[in-house]
Write a structure and sequence with these properties.
- This protein is α+β, with helices and mostly antiparallel strands and about 150 residues long.
- The protein has one domain: Nuclear Transport Factor 2, Chain: A, CATH 3.10.450.
- The longest helix has about 40 residues.
- It is elongated, with a radius of gyration of 19 Å.
Length: about 150
């Protein structure tokens, strides 16, 4: 009986961990879907709600934003002109768990319809955003990110 229990208990623990990680991975992928949805509706409040209050975010221009307020303010300015007609689409997401409550996601994206700061239309482009996500109070949030254009 002890041998059977010694074999079954680790298997149950692994099974439970796998189910939890699958659920967490789905939650992180859902953030990417919600990011695209908020971006494409140009809803900067919904976009900002996906990042932590204390987020550190580096955009493709290399601007370091500290906190949700700075992130939201920049998104409001850029979505009023540069990104007003843009459409963003996630094309792939790779996730690596560092701990059960911390993950790194590499999010590949494509974009069309955006403009340079002077209003000149841009060609469609793509990039990758590395996000560090943390599970806080049972909910995943982006705590740090680096966004990069891919040429």
């Amino acid at each position: 009986m002890r041998i059977v229990l010694a074999l079954i208990i680790p298997l149950l623990a692994v099974s439970l961990l796998s189910a939890t990680q699958a659920s967490d991975e789905q939650a992180i992928r859902e953030i990417q879907t919600r990011w695209d949805d908020a971006w494409n509706r140009h809803d900067v409040k919904a976009l900002a709600a996906l990042v932590a209050d204390d987020v550190r975010f580096v955009n493709v221009a290399g601007i370091v934003l500290t906190g949700r307020g700075e992130f939201e303010a920049l998104q409001a300015r850029t979505h009023a002109m540069q990104f007003k007609e843009s459409v963003r689409t996630v094309t792939g997401t790779g996730i690596k768990f560092l701990t059960p409550d911390i993950a790194v996601a590499h999010v590949k994206w494509g974009m069309r319809g955006d403009k340079d700061p002077d209003g000149t239309p841009r060609q469609p482009r793509h990039g990758v955003m590395m996000q560090v996500l943390m599970k806080r109070d049972g909910k995943w949030t982006v705590v740090a990110a680096q966004n990069t254009n891919v040429s």
